[in-house]
């Protein structure tokens, strides 16, 4: 359940892609109360998503629902006496909107021509990440919603499953908890350093990362993911050049106790056995006032790479364990307050890369290269109604520790084993307070934000039995910002949006070497404006068009580089990005059997910041020049019959480092001159064809099937002779089937069904990168059997 500015989404665990026809009867015993809470209980009982999108409806009194009723009958009973009416949107999703008053026929002066309602009967799900109560079909820009299936929400699912469903969402593949995400080709480099990530990641309204890689939280008990294409500088500030990924968790249910559990076991071809388990408990502590929700999960993803030199098999296994706890109190002095704690640990026993020329799925290296990712987060959110506006505030503190070991054998010109280590300790404080309001046709939002990120990165290189600190860099970035956004109906079919963000940023960095005193430190202060303009034109109810301009930037900072025989610091400048986008939407999301969304865009990215690798493997950061990105993004959905849904998603990207900085001149290359000029790690093209089928077999039993064919085009690792290595260019097939028996679901899935061999990422170890033969193979065919139960 998510409550955000009058939006209530009550979701129970829904198996597979099962659609709810409403014909199946359930026994309801829901007492009268607030409409918000009654709908939550109905959603949990019927295992559907119910979205209450109109301000003011949540607090209306409902008579409840009692008896053995169909879903439609239960909703009709719950809405009796209120101003709400139910509308169906897609499989298992119901929207509650305000009932429009009947027009009078009495004689009166001729009224002014009426304008279409901003939220009408065909309006689908609300984009809560917009912070403005904007409907999906009305948002003047590109947004992608992924309603997580039961299989994706099951224990063991991670962020990689999102990039597998969205061609425009790219990622590196260094390993679980080590990756960077890119949206629509806004990619600075294939490596992680002190620069802010191009893609912001959020848990609800809580920021998860700054300069760190993806925290890779488990998707268990999440409702959906919202991906807003960037830059989102006006609302989200720096670190959203490519956009944001927002995970929407299920909030505590105040009215009813509930629980669920899941477990799975899987086998990987030429690899080991995977297993995972998870459990959720929702417990009201004071009926209709206080509730707690606890999620616990853990498991192991089996390895599939062997190391003969170490006499080890399946070396790249990863264990994961975590907990999420949320305590919610409603009407606490007029506030709705939530407190949350997130904890996740991941341990990878070794890297998941191999070398070209070696036997498949082997890496003959003498040293193990483990990785650890320890993520902790605490947060509090509070919201209340103030007159005609909603006040929302969120504060969080995250502690993130990353430890990696690399095989640096040969660095000194000998064959003696050498171990390189990298440790990164990060503390991220984030706060935002905002007010939102206006009516359905003139929504607005305004507020302020504060962020402080501190990181300390230590590098060491030493013989396997020794220890030596090479250098340590401390970075502290602070940002304070004022932001706002306002939409207004200009004509009966045209809506305009304007917004902006004024950011004051201060950075301070210090470098020390060999545990000595600080030898170099720098600080910088800057003030920047990021603006946005958009138009949304709806000439008919079945089609609409939009144009938007967005601006974003990242403040400069300090990185380390190798100068002759020692490390020294080097400053890099702020970069900024301007994006122009023209898009169209065809077909009603609710009523039409066919719908299409497409957008063309061009981005001008100046003074691109990039974290890079320099031989013999040491990191550094620099501004590499100016880039131009042109692209086309298409999503098609066709439902030829109620039980079958077909989807096509495609992404074309043409990026170029058009004005490289000195030292980053791009050669034509021997294979594809256009590709070598492209920004790193972004395929020129990608597509996904999906088919989902769901049918009721008998009362209480439903069969679901889902299959996809996914193509990832070619890309390259980076610029220059060291990084000019190709990757990608493969086709993958995945399939899942499940059977739902009332509250129990059994599923079987096959990943990489054809057991395709391909290089997904041409990197795994900076100290052997100069050999230009690293590759990260696709996980071989993996079969997983899962079971989940709700109680």
What is the CATH topology descriptor of the largest domain? Answer: Maltoporin, Chain A
- State the end-to-end distance: 17 Å
Quaternary class: single chain
In the CATH hierarchy, the architecture of the largest domain is: Beta Barrel
Could you tell me the radius of gyration in angstroms? 26 Å
The CATH class of the largest domain, by name, is Mainly Beta
The overall strand count is 47
Helical content (DSSP H or I, runs of 4+)? under 10%
Can you say what the CATH homologous superfamily of the largest domain is? TonB-dependent receptor, beta-barrel domain
Which strand-content bin applies to the residues?
over 45%
Shape: globular
Number of helical segments with 4 or more residues: 6
What is the average of the pLDDT values? Answer: 84
Q: What would you call the structural class?
A: mainly beta
Tell me the number of structural domains: 2
> Which stretches are poorly predicted, pLDDT < 50 over at least 5 residues?
1-23, 102-124, 668-673
The major pleated sheet works out as: 22 strands, antiparallel, barrel
